[in-house]
Amino acid sequence: KTPKSEKKQENGKSPKQEVKTPKEGKTPKQDTKTPKQEGKTPKDKDAKTPKQEAKTPKQEAKTPKDDSKTPGKTPKRTIKGGIQIEDMKVGSGPECTPGSSVGMYYEGRLKSNNKKFDGLQSGAPFKFKLGKGQVIKGWDLGVMGMKVGGKRRLTIPPKLAYGESGAPPDIPPNSTLVFDIECKFVK
Known about the structure:
alpha+beta; seven-stranded antiparallel beta sheet; 3 helices
């Protein structure tokens, strides 16, 4: 009986051990996977970054285009002190120059809520000497260069209008004012 049992053990052990070795043979396969993963990551990073870099100059290129469009679209311009001038209609008569007496129809509104606080649209025009401080600074500066028959919109910051004190009760402190003005005469 004994030799049979020895044979069984020998026969039984050795093939099992041989079967184990191919299991060990799997490990190199796992090794081969890892370099592939490593190979992917730098490719992804490299591929993404130039795309992002390429986008930014495109955005930068857009901005100057927008700037160049604005003067062509609207006749708005901003002069000294931050007054915005928009010529609604350019006049064909005499030009408003410093020291001349000018006559104006006008309508004044608060920029914040569009509330009208003053206006003169008919009868004798509002008359003043230009550039002599008889009106708010925004008018002295904003009316210059207008011609009789012209219409202009002035957007005047507080410091060139009624400033910190405002003009109670109609104009609150620090108000930006919008005037639609029409030049009726220049003398």
